[in-house]
# Entry
Amino acid sequence: MGTVRSTDQPLIARDDPATDSDQVGGPAHLDDRSASGNLDKIRDILFGAQAREHDRRFAQLEQHLIREASDLRNDLKRRFESLELYIKKEVEALTSRLTKEQEVRGESVTNLTQDLTQLATTLEDKARLLDMQATQVQAHILQQLTERTSELATDVRARHAEATSALNQAVHDLRAEKTDRATLAAILLEASQRLSSDEAVSGRGSA
# Structure
């Protein structure tokens, strides 16, 4: 900037209105348009290159920012698409896994229901069989008790009959024995009487 300013210093002196009027002997002031044009020239000489450099840099920065924004937008788009695809795949995988788990659990519940139904049927069959066996055992025991009771009753009646017969026989024997004793007593009495009579007769004969 110092170099430009020192180089342009004679231009400023040449374009100064006071200097021009002194040299050419013209009027003391110039037209406003001419003065404005001179100021634009001066401004262009002093700051034109820098302004153009700034414009160029701003243009480059703008293009760079536009490219960065475009790249960022494209990158974000790609990232969002990738994220959307990943989420979609994860959701599909999760849905598939949940569906399979639901199917497996459904099959497990169905199998468990079938097993419980089969177990209930088996228990009912076993209960029915046990009831039937208990009824048969009860009937068999009742039959055995009846037969045993009948046998005991028959045995008791037979023993009672035997005892009655033995008792009757004993009574009969006792009666017969009593009769024999009475007969024997009568015979002995009769013999005694006969002996007494015989002795009396013998005594009388001896006398």
Remarks:
- Residues 58 and 64 are 9 Å apart (CA to CA).
- The two ends are 227 Å apart (CA to CA).
- The first helix runs from residue 2 to 7.
- The chain has a mean pLDDT of 77.
